[in-house]
């Protein structure tokens, strides 16, 4: 995890749901709203919805009233010191266990924390040829999501990269905003699909995770001993493997014959 996820809510619906959790959100800027589109198949290098803390007020003073702002950032983190933004292709995820020891991430833990709203995420279970029913190894995609369809918050880090071809630093085009998803060991009910999963942050922790006044170590402590069982894995259509496919039909259950040799993560038994 995580190389694909679903985020099918519009910016307006996202703000409404986040506010309902008790986290105030500033009005979405027109540029961010225009860059975001609902998707059932979010892939790296796309613009994604990200909750960040608002900028501190000019000249100091009290923090702004809204605790969060919804921004459009590109998935695949580009450190501020990178020579080439192509490094973002390799930095879509960051292991939470080692994040403070990596030069690309450690400076971000203190003040560039974010939450990526999501419906759920995809992982692929390897099916060996001996039991695939086709004589060939294959992979079966699963969708990990709350059974009630509720909103998830994936913990992440973000950065700004200075675009060298834009001379004016005050031009919005002079800065590329990018993001990475933090990952951790998969919980027991998901390990039969993949051994890693995104860090799913409960809504009651979002405000402190975003708060720049909360030191990095204290913020990372929020990610320890998180509740499990909040998402349920279910097999979905192999078409999700092609990023050009993007519709609710991706979440339809496969036919029984397509599940030959696939292990049900919740029981440990074969589907068929």
Automatic annotation (TrEMBL):
<dbReference type="InterPro" id="IPR036590">
    <property type="entry name" value="SRAP-like"/>
</dbReference>
<keyword id="KW-0238">DNA-binding</keyword>
<keyword id="KW-0190">Covalent protein-DNA linkage</keyword>
<keyword id="KW-0378">Hydrolase</keyword>
<dbReference type="GO" id="GO:0016787">
    <property type="term" value="F:hydrolase activity"/>
</dbReference>
<comment type="similarity">
    <text>Belongs to the SOS response-associated peptidase family.</text>
</comment>
<keyword id="KW-0645">Protease</keyword>
<keyword id="KW-0227">DNA damage</keyword>
<dbReference type="Pfam" id="PF02586">
    <property type="entry name" value="SRAP"/>
</dbReference>
<protein>
    <recommendedName>
        <fullName>Abasic site processing protein</fullName>
        <ecNumber>3.4.-.-</ecNumber>
    </recommendedName>
</protein>
<dbReference type="InterPro" id="IPR003738">
    <property type="entry name" value="SRAP"/>
</dbReference>
<keyword id="KW-0456">Lyase</keyword>
């Amino acid at each position: 995890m995580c190389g694909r996820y679903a985020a099918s809510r519009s910016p307006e619906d996202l703000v409404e749901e986040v506010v309902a959790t008790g986290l105030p959100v500033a009005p979405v800027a027109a540029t961010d709203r225009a860059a975001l589109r609902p998707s059932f198949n979010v892939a790296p290098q796309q613009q994604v919805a990200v909750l960040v803390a608002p900028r501190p007020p000019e000249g100091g003073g009290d923090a702004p009233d809204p605790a969060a702002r919804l921004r459009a950032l590109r998935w695949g983190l580009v450190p501020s010191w990178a020579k080439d933004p192509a490094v973002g292709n390799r930095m879509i995820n960051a292991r939470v266990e080692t994040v403070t020891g990596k030069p690309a991430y450690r400076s971000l833990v203190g003040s560039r924390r974010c939450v990526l709203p999501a419906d759920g995420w995809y992982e692929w279970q390897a099916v060996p040829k001996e039991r695939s029913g086709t004589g060939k190894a294959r992979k079966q995609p699963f969708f990990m999501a709350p059974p009630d369809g509720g909103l998830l918050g994936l913990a992440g880090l973000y950065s700004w990269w200075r675009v060298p071809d834009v001379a004016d630093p005050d031009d919005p085009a002079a800065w590329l905003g990018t993001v990475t998803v933090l990952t951790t060991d998969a919980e027991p009910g998901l390990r039969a699909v993949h051994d890693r999963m995104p860090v799913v942050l409960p809504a009651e922790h979002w405000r402190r995770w975003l708060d720049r006044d909360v030191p990095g170590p204290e913020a990372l402590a929020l990610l320890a001993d998180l509740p499990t069982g909040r998402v349920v894995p279910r097999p979905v259509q192999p078409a999700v493997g092609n990023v050009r496919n993007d519709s609710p039909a991706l979440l339809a259950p496969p036919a029984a014959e397509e599940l030959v040799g696939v292990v049900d993560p919740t029981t440990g038994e074969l589907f068929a």
